[in-house]
Design brief:
The complex is a heterodimer of chains A (469) and B (427). Chain A has 469 residues and is of the alpha/beta class. Chain A contains 16 helices and 14 strands. The chains are: A alpha/beta (469), B alpha+beta (427).
Chain lengths: 469, 427
């Protein structure tokens, strides 16, 4: 479970020794993760450099949202006016130029129209990227490419993806991340909440990802920055241990009433989690015939509704297809896919307006994996399900998204043979596995009102894993 | 509902800590202020229902300072009392609580105010000493051996050196001066602007003292050594920008805050007499002023610790159904010149109003000629619990003796608190 290399690299002397000797040992940076409940100003005391390309569309939005989040704005090629006004309101007047050691670069590349325009990425970041702080952030903002664009424009917009993925690889050694936010026209007001999350230490293991922000889901009536799930009712399946337990904890820290669902066999663990988060344990095997009815009736009777559903319960039954028994196939499809669909359908009448559905997919569902035909099929199925369900619930303000974790340090990955595990951990930008809390942070964001700009998406939380698209 | 009115009050001169009032504790300062109030107003003692007192450094042996004042003065035993703390807004808090009690019908006549003696802040022993020593001391079975063993366990540095009291935020550990230094930097308030405000404060306070403007408010106080103090001791009417400019930064190397543009540690007490309008009529006392509204707010202490008034003042105005333009005089507690100027900037900023108050435009301009017309805490000093009461007292007199009809008060306080009140003249 413990990653010895992360420990070793955290030791200054060892780090120096290894670097001096030039040993071929990766030295993953200990990530700054942020602790506890989210705060009103997650970026307090952090220098955020705003760099603008040609025709930037988001200057106003950045000017009002960054100082409110506590950031100290530094401006490169960016209009100072809007930042000056907002700086007055928050006591964060803008500085012109780059900070000495910025926490983050935010590049407004919304105005790109031609391949030549891409040069702004080089011009803005090339002189300064080296100064990016440890565990820092690079966030590039663009307009989403679409087949309706003029081909030249679409090409320029799409180029951002390759750029950001590569920047992520480059800054990963420092524990820093790079992500791309594609903000659709008309959805600018949905950006601040996402940006605040991506720039905060809470998004530590999210890297190399393009996220599309649009206005498809009916807008949230309020977007709180702290205690983001105050008074919400959240169901988390498979919450007795690992990622599920971590999600239950985070949701509860943000004020949600958490229903901890897990199999009756895990009653002891699950009720301990429920006690810890001040929630309720609901014993239930999601594959049993009456599962959906049981959960529905329980939620109806106890709360009369549900605001957040996190489908986390999942199993692996790995074998190569040639050797796999049919039961193993069925079990995985039943738990990981069929139960998700059945339960969501059953809970539909109880799902509140502005509700959130979060499904756990997997990087295997995107890239495939030896011995995981059943698992990868089920997790890819989840992606298809989320994409199809999202538009159907959008008018009610419900957002539906999937998370595809990469290598996360859990009971599941502990079972992997040492050598394979050691290699798997390093196969990402950050050269280390993620922790359950990294997934829980993203799940919490997707469960929050601030996620109203995201729906039907698959968010990979993989530290910028080298496999998969 | 019967409106509460202020009919009078008194305060001690304000004196630098560890000077003339060193041997008068906060209860003694309160006694001096309330005695002055009783002498000046001649209110029948039998009519007094209660004392509500405010204080920040409360004596551990007798934290209910208000009750001790009543007992020391020999007021009727029926005069009940409580003591409240809201950091530097404690004096105002005591007064608004009294007004609320009168308007709710709980009392007719209440003395309210506050005092603090920085000279008598108590040194405390480390709590680790208590935790180690108490079990031995409290056990009937402890013998000489146990005491010897205890001595062996105590470390001089960690357990036996008393802790120095300091004005630091418990949650952030930051000294208040450092927080104000941050605000000066955040809001780009220059040393020159700060010094200019301090100079104005001293000049106005000196003019007020010279003109006898405080004569109805300040009562002479004689200390145990027989020395009598008649007027505020910190006011320096003869200071100049040049002299202020020479002072060294007090809180941070290269900083802009100095002893000259920060309020000093001060000893003093202030009290006002509140009663229902009917009671004032019945007793033949002339009301000076009344409250139209008040408000208290909290901000994140780790952000801009002392910006609270910029949120509290608009809120009080809103509750009073007024705009800043309707206000004749503004009185702001001057903890630090940088803090006052930061708050004024915020009130004058459209962006602040839009983003933090949900208003379309700035709260309004705070013209210097109506701000702290008789000086403020920078010149007069700042005995924490007394300051709010001092401001209410001075503004009550201002509303009674000038054409001014309305006054707006603003106070910043530790813990990220802000306080404000709108006062009005009583016809």
């Amino acid at each position: 479970m413990t990653d010895r290399l992360v420990q070793l690299a955290a030791d200054k002397r060892a780090r120096k020794l290894i670097t001096t000797l030039g040993l071929p040992v990766p030295l993953p940076q200990t990530l700054e993760r942020g602790k506890g409940a989210w705060v009103a100003q997650p970026l307090r005391g952090r220098a955020v450099v705003v760099a603008s390309g040609p025709r930037p569309a988001l200057t106003e939005v950045l000017a009002t949202s960054l100082p409110a989040a506590g950031a100290e704005p530094y401006l490169l090629e960016t209009d100072v006016g809007p930042f000056r006004a907002s700086g007055e309101a928050w006591g964060r007047l803008p500085h012109v130029g780059c900070a000495e050691r910025p926490w983050a670069f935010v590049v407004d590349a919304t105005g790109l129209r031609t391949p030549a325009d891409l040069r702004c990425l080089y011009d803005l970041l090339h002189p300064h990227l080296r100064s990016l702080g440890r565990s820092g952030r690079v966030v590039v903002l663009g307009r989403p490419p679409s087949p309706d664009d003029v081909p030249r424009v679409a090409a320029s917009r799409q180029a951002l993806e390759g750029f950001v993925r590569s920047v992520g690889r480059e800054v990963g050694r420092r524990g820093a991340t790079a992500n791309l936010l594609w903000v659709a026209e008309g959805a600018d007001s949905r950006l601040p909440a996402v940006l605040r999350f991506v720039l905060s230490p809470a998004s530590a293991y999210l890297s190399g990802q393009p996220l599309r922000i649009d206005g498809v889901v009916a807008a949230a009536s309020a977007v709180p920055h702290s205690r983001v799930l105050d008074g919400k009712v959240a169901l988390v399946t498979g919450a007795a241990r690992g990622i599920g337990r971590s999600i239950a904890r985070r949701l509860s820290e943000e004020g949600a009433q958490v229903v901890v669902l897990d199999r009756p066999e895990d009653a002891e663990l699950a009720s301990a989690v429920a006690r810890e988060v001040g929630g309720v344990y609901l014993p239930c095997d999601v594959t049993s015939d009456d599962a959906a009815a049981t959960v529905h009736d329980f939620l109806l009777e106890r709360f009369g509704r549900v605001d957040v559903v996190v489908h986390n319960a999942g199993v692996t039954r790995d074998r190569t297809l040639a050797k796999m028994k049919p039961e193993r196939w069925d079990q995985v499809i039943d738990v990981n896919l069929e139960a998700v669909i059945t339960l969501t359908e059953a809970l539909d009448p109880l799902l509140a307006d502005e509700g959130r559905v979060v499904c756990l997919s997997s990087i295997a569902g995107i890239a495939g994996n030896v011995g995981q035909t059943n698992y990868a099929a089920s997790k890819a199925g989840v992606i298809g399900y989320v994409r199809s369900l999202a538009p159907r619930l959008a008018a009610r303000g419900v957002a539906v998204n999937a998370i595809a974790p990469g290598f996360i340090e859990t009971r599941l990955t502990d079972a992997i043979p040492v050598a394979t595990r050691e290699v798997a951990r390093r196969l990402c930008n950050l050269s280390q596995g993620g922790l359950p809390v990294d997934i829980a942070q993203v799940a919490t964001f997707l469960a929050s009102p601030g996620a109203h700009g995201l729906s039907g998406q698959v968010v990979r939380v993989c530290g910028g894993n080298f496999v998969g698209a | 509902m019967s409106r509460a009115v202020i009919v009078g009050g008194a305060r001690t001169p304000f004196v630098r800590a560890f000077a003339e009032f060193t041997r008068i504790d906060t209860i003694g300062l309160g006694v001096a202020a309330v005695r002055g109030l009783l002498d000046r107003t001649r209110v029948p003692w039998s009519e007094i229902d209660a004392i509500v007192w405010g204080g920040v450094i409360l004596p551990t042996g007798a934290p209910n300072v208000g009750r001790e004042i009543a007992l020391d003065l020999g007021l009727p035993a029926s005069v009940e009392a409580m003591t409240v703390t809201r950091a530097c807004a404690s004096g105002l808090q005591a007064i608004t609580l009294a007004a609320a009690a009168i308007e709710r019908g709980e009392a007719d006549v209440v003395i309210a105010g506050g005092s603090d003696s920085t000279s008598n802040a108590q040194l405390t022993m480390p709590q680790s000493l208590v935790h180690k020593a108490a079990p031995v001391a409290m056990s009937s079975k402890s013998g000489p051996k146990d005491y010897l063993r205890l001595l062996g366990q105590l470390s001089v540095r960690d357990d036996l050196l008393p802790k120095q009291p300091k004005i630091a935020e418990r949650s952030t550990g930051q000294l208040m001066g450092e927080a104000a230094e941050d605000m000066a930097e955040r809001n780009q308030v220059s040393r020159g602007e700060q010094d200019a405000l301090a100079l104005l404060s001293h000049q106005r306070a000196a003019a007020a003292v010279a003109a006898g403007r405080f004569d109805d408010e300040v009562v002479p106080v004689t200390n145990p050594d027989g020395e009598t103090v008649f007027v505020d001791q910190l006011v320096r009417g003869d200071t100049s920008l040049e002299r202020l400019a020479k002072l060294r930064a007090a809180f941070r190397k290269g900083g802009t805050l100095t002893a000259g543009n920060s309020s000093a540690l001060t000893d003093g007490g202030a009290a006002v007499l509140l009663m229902s309008e009917e009671k004032a009529k019945e007793l033949g006392l002339q009301p000076l002023a009344a409250f139209r509204s008040w408000s208290y707010v909290g901000v994140d202490p780790a952000d801009q610790l002392l910006i609270g008034p910029a949120l509290a003042m608009p809120k009080a105005l809103e509750r009073a159904g007024m705009e800043l333009a309707d206000i004749d005089v503004v009185d702001m507690h001057e903890a630090f010149a940088a803090q006052v100027l930061s708050v004024v900037q915020a009130l004058e900023s459209d962006a602040f109003a839009q983003e933090r108050l949900g208003r379309d435009a700035a709260v309004g301009k705070v013209a210097r000629d109506r701000l702290n017309v008789h000086g403020g805490s920078l010149a007069l000093g700042h005995p924490f619990g007394a300051t709010g009461a001092r401001m209410v007292l001075t503004m009550a007199h201002e509303l009674a003796r000038t054409d001014a009809k309305t006054a707006l008060l603003g106070i910043c306080a530790a813990g990220g608190l802000g306080a404000a009140a709108v006062m009005e003249a009583v016809e």
